Amino acid sequence: MSLYYKIFKPKKHTLKSGKEVYEKPTLTIPILILLLLFTMLSVRVTNFSMATLSKNIHKLFAILSPMFKPNFSYFPSIVGPLFDTIKMSFLGSFLGAVLAMPFAFLASNNMVNNKVINWIVKLLFSILRTIPTLVSALIATYIFGLGAFAGTVAIFLFSFSYVGKLTYEQIETVNMGAFEAMISMGFTRTMAFFQIHCARNPSLLFINCPL
């Protein structure tokens, strides 16, 4: 990077006070070059061909056209699986949100003063968020077999990771002055947090907080 700054020297600006400041050159050029190189490498590795894409583009419409002719006689056979999907979504989301709460406390550096625990839990949330739900469902299918339970596990992991991240970020914005005052009054750390945070957001994860 120092070589780049030697080639593209910073611009000098003179302020009204007479002080000279230097503006670093933009990194747009090297970033674009890297993106171009990675794109070319990806095209080569995947054997992407624009000619093949343009030649077979009509097959896309062959797949889409049957979707605009629904067969309503098939509807009774999907009612059961449809309700199974709704139950999977509700149960997976509910369990993920509930279990995310204690982990969010562990990830919050103003609630748990242990950087190792904070880092491990935040890393867990980050790893789970990077895994697409379909991939989680595929892995769960290999472990638990094909069925509603595998889908519930995939939705649970998705809800757990995202609710946990959003919750610990909210926890870290708590007014620590009021928090410490409630601790001195005899409240536990958990009770003090819910009293303060739920007063600001009573709908937090459907938890009723006495105000």
UniProtKB/TrEMBL annotation:
<keyword id="KW-1133">Transmembrane helix</keyword>
<dbReference type="InterPro" id="IPR035906">
    <property type="entry name" value="MetI-like_sf"/>
</dbReference>
<feature type="transmembrane region" description="Helical">
    <location>
        <begin position="146"/>
        <end position="163"/>
    </location>
</feature>
<keyword id="KW-0813">Transport</keyword>
<dbReference type="Pfam" id="PF00528">
    <property type="entry name" value="BPD_transp_1"/>
</dbReference>
<feature type="domain" description="ABC transmembrane type-1">
    <location>
        <begin position="82"/>
        <end position="211"/>
    </location>
</feature>
<dbReference type="InterPro" id="IPR000515">
    <property type="entry name" value="MetI-like"/>
</dbReference>
<dbReference type="GO" id="GO:0055085">
    <property type="term" value="P:transmembrane transport"/>
</dbReference>
<protein>
    <submittedName>
        <fullName>Phosphate-import permease protein phnE</fullName>
    </submittedName>
</protein>
<comment type="similarity">
    <text>Belongs to the binding-protein-dependent transport system permease family.</text>
</comment>
<keyword id="KW-0472">Membrane</keyword>
<keyword id="KW-1003">Cell membrane</keyword>
<dbReference type="GO" id="GO:0005886">
    <property type="term" value="C:plasma membrane"/>
</dbReference>
<feature type="transmembrane region" description="Helical">
    <location>
        <begin position="119"/>
        <end position="140"/>
    </location>
</feature>
<keyword id="KW-0812">Transmembrane</keyword>
<feature type="transmembrane region" description="Helical">
    <location>
        <begin position="21"/>
        <end position="43"/>
    </location>
</feature>
<feature type="transmembrane region" description="Helical">
    <location>
        <begin position="88"/>
        <end position="107"/>
    </location>
</feature>
